[in-house]
Amino acid sequence: MQPLLALLLTVGFAEVDLTPKLGANPVYLAGFATNRVATKVHDPIMGRAVVLSDGTTKIAMVSVDLVGLFHGNVEAVRKRLPGFDYVLISSTHNHEGPDTLGLWGRSPFTSGVDPDYLAAVEAGCVRAVKDADAARKPATVKVGTAKGPELLNDSRLPLVKHDDIVTLQFLGAKGEPLGVLVQWNCHPETLDSKNTEVTADFVGYTVEYLRAKHKCPVAYFTGTVGGLLSSLKVEIRDDAGVLLKDGTFEKAHGYGVAVGKLADRAIAAGVPATLTPFSVRTKTLLMPVENMLYRVGKQAGVLKRAMYLLDGATADPAAWVETSDAAKPIGVKTEVGYLRLGELEVAALPGEIYPELVLGKVTDPAEPGADYPDAPVEPSIYGQLSMKHRMLLGLANDQLGYFIPKRQWDDVAPYCYGRKSSQYGEINSVGPNAAAVVCDTFRGLVKSPARPK
To answer: Is residue 149 part of a domain?
Structure first.
């Protein structure tokens, strides 16, 4: 293995307030059922940017406290940021913020997206990146990890938790804190489905705790959240030992602080790392849309994103043919990314991947009742990585729902584990072949000697 070339690392942090204004037009909250209208703002929805440069390559990573953004929104932001070699936008997958996808409007047949708000989100991301770029300073970094299985509930069998938190602590020339990047694997849905107040859920409290503790900017990124990894039903108690209830701000605060303390453990265990030079590899592709609800949503105007014919499609995006005919095989333009930042490898995946696919724990042999028991096991994400440090950024540059191991797909009776009904997940996935497309594409990027076009 060739030694890493030590280049000058610079880093900058910035944040922007993306809180929607409540007024004449309803703000539909995303993540549970339709027609959940916001009644007040409890705490702000934020966008947080981290800009990194190795002296020759400059990248930006943005996290927004939203349920997700489509690839088209990311492309719009990138067009307004010339001079960057790569811009990544990831959503925390917040279930208590505005609908930014269209799935949670007044009814299943009406979009919940406010186009003006979405435009403000794009402009906010641009502003945050520019501010972070202007704030860049020379830095060193420590990479830390810690395990917190007690902070995750896996609500879908089999029980597989991706319970590693990852921290990047950036320090200045005199050892002063410049910023902390935190990556954790959990649905921000602690407030549950009855809440009608706009909030960043536990993420805001995690950032608040760490910012006060370390006296520096903090950016939180979501990783593996399929499976389904959640804060709901996780036992959190207050200082008096009283169990805090799901659906309360007390539980959201307590959970957020607990994640912050887990991040503290990772920071304390951090080791110096080299994050230069940078190598960025991305692949633009057509993801098959097999979910009929998504197809109907496109035709009804609920899902406002381009879909393309799969029949005869080439690898050249310029040749793709757009269509609204859901009766034909169709796909959406999306992107998979692989970043090698010195000793750190980063997977950038456009949805909610199941931990089985990340950690190489796909059920084998398949559980009786699985719809595709003979499907090949997809290559695991972390199984492709070989460097000292690794991190996964979910909902990166798109939101395509769940990536489910095909041999664990369970939509038709008889159901797995002797259940009388199917488990949740398939209804919010583009289809049973999505996991293979993502995992195979990522494997190709890792093996590729150069950045694909």
So the answer is: no
Is 151 within a domain? no
Query: Could you give the C-alpha distances from 386 to 344, 383, 390, in angstroms and in order?
Result: 10, 8, 9
Q: What tens digit of pLDDT does each residue of 173-209 get?
A: 999 999 999 999 999 999 999 999 999 999 999 999 9
| Paired tokens of 175 | 């050892």
φ, ψ of residue 53 in degrees (nearest 5): -140, 145
pTM strictly above 0.85: yes
Residue 416 lies in a domain: yes
Domain tally, the chain: 1
Domain of residue 354: give its range.
278-447
Q: What is the mean pLDDT of the chain?
A: 95
Q: Is the residue at 224 inside a domain?
A: no
CA–CA dist 112, 66 (Å, integer)? 13
Angle at 202 between CA 201 and CA 206, to 5 degrees: 135
- Maximal C-alpha separation, the chain: 64
What is the per-residue pLDDT for 1? 42
